[in-house]
Structure formats: structure tokens, C-alpha cells
Specification:
- By secondary structure, the protein is an alpha+beta fold.
- The chain has 2 domains: 9-98, Winged helix-like DNA-binding domain superfamily/Winged helix DNA-binding domain (Arc Repressor Mutant, subunit A); 113-206, SCP2 sterol-binding domain (Nonspecific Lipid-transfer Protein, Chain A, 2-Layer Sandwich), CATH 3.30.1050.
- Helices cover 40% and strands 20% of the residues.
- It has 10 helices and 8 strands.
- The strands form 2 sheets. The protein has a 5-stranded mixed beta sheet.
- It is globular.
- The two termini are 32 Å apart.
């Protein structure tokens, strides 16, 4: 690994997570462990060789660890250590700082499921969401998350459980609902989304995100 050879704590941090793809790997692991193939699917622009190298470097630096998966999952999974999880506020701050910036030329037009959920957390507007107490089961193709809006904050966890409302849709549709402010009724009417439960509160949640059209 290259080093800035600078005594500053910022430089020492960047020695560990400043390489290309490193922080995006942390993003993909923020909500739980993943297999190599899952990480590669979430970061389609990274080659398998570079992914292997970054995982090895982050493991050597104590940011992540690998272990045998628990049934019913098989094989090896990668997960953040407590040191790696300490990067969460840094990652969210970077997301808030970067959200208003326009995407680069040739950028993908769809987020990974984990990137979507992180984007929801970084663009949630505490003022618009004030007084909103709601749990939402977000069902994406092949994945599921529980979103909890409470006290002007939005929390997220991977998994499924009974919630106040359910939203089932593709990542692209959720992006349209949240960041392009497309009406939920239209998405449901055209079969692009399915919503159950407290849909009034769900619509308010969907309206509680900053409108960064750069997404």
C-alpha cells in the first residue's frame, strides 16, 4: 500500500482507506456481511483482481475480517470490524457532502441496494421528517431492509420484520420516488411499486428527502 508518509491523522487514515474503491467497499458492508460475489455485484466497475487486492489490504489494516458464513449461506463472507464500523459517520458525512454534486460522465443511473439505503440516510431531511414515527419494510429485488424514521433521524438495517408500512419496488423506482419526487400512486398504478400499511405516512417519508437531481 502507498503511504503519504505524513504524521497527520488524516493522512494516516487515508493511507488505510484512501485507495480507490476502499470506502465504497465499506459502504457495501455497512449493513452487514457479504460474499465476494455480492460485493462484486454491488460494485460492477471494479475488477475481480482489484476487489481481491482491496479486500486483502482492508483486512490487513483491521477494517474488515472474513469468516465462514453461517447456514443457510455458504462460503466465506466479509464483514466490518468494530474499527471498520467506526467509519460509518465519516461515510455518511461524505455522502451528504457529495450528494449535491453532479454525477461524472458515464456514471451508472442506478445505485446498488446498499448504496440506495445509505443515500436515503444521507439525504433524509430532519426538518421535513420531524415528528414522523414510522417503520418501513423496503423490499428490493433479492434484498430487504427495515427503515425507521424517529426523532428526525432515519435508521436502516438489512432484514425483514413486521412494519407500519411496506414498499416493494426496484432500486430505480425508489430512486424515482425519493429523488425525482414521482408520485407513489403513479408507481403503484403502473405496477412499478406495491405499497401496504400506513401509506399516508409512507408518502410523507418519501417526501422527506432532499431533492438532489444529480442522482
Amino acid at each position: 500500500m502507498r503511504s503519504y508518509r505524513d504524521l497527520c491523522g488524516i493522512a494516516r487514515a487515508l493511507d488505510v482507506v484512501g485507495e480507490r474503491w476502499a470506502m465504497l467497499l465499506v459502504r457495501e458492508l455497512l449493513l452487514g456481511p457479504k460474499r465476494f460475489a455480492d460485493l462484486h455485484r454491488g460494485l460492477p466497475g471494479i475488477s475481480q483482481n482489484v476487489l481481491t487486492q482491496r479486500l486483502r489490504e482492508l483486512e490487513q489494516s483491521g477494517v474488515l475480517t472474513r469468516r465462514r458464513a453461517l447456514p443457510p449461506v455458504s462460503g466465506v463472507v466479509y464483514e466490518l470490524t468494530s474499527r471498520g464500523r467506526d467509519l460509518e459517520p465519516v461515510l455518511l458525512a461524505l455522502g451528504r457532502w457529495g450528494s449535491p454534486l453532479p454525477p461524472g460522465a458515464g456514471s451508472a443511473d442506478e445505485l446498488s441496494p446498499d448504496a440506495l439505503v445509505v443515500a436515503l440516510r444521507t439525504t433524509f431531511d430532519a426538518g421535513s421528517g420531524a415528528g414522523l414515527y414510522l417503520t418501513v419494510q423496503l423490499q428490493l429485488p433479492g434484498d430487504a431492509f427495515v427503515l425507521t424514521a424517529r426523532d428526525g433521524h432515519l435508521h436502516a438495517a438489512r432484514g425483514a420484520e413486521p412494519c407500519d408500512a411496506t414498499l416493494a419496488a426496484s432500486v430505480r423506482t425508489v430512486q424515482d420516488l425519493v429523488f425525482d419526487k414521482q408520485p407513489l400512486d403513479d408507481a403503484v398504478r403502473h405496477g412499478r411499486a406495491h405499497a401496504d400499511g400506513d401509506t399516508v405516512a409512507l408518502v410523507r417519508l418519501l417526501d422527506s428527502f432532499e431533492d438532489h437531481r444529480a442522482r
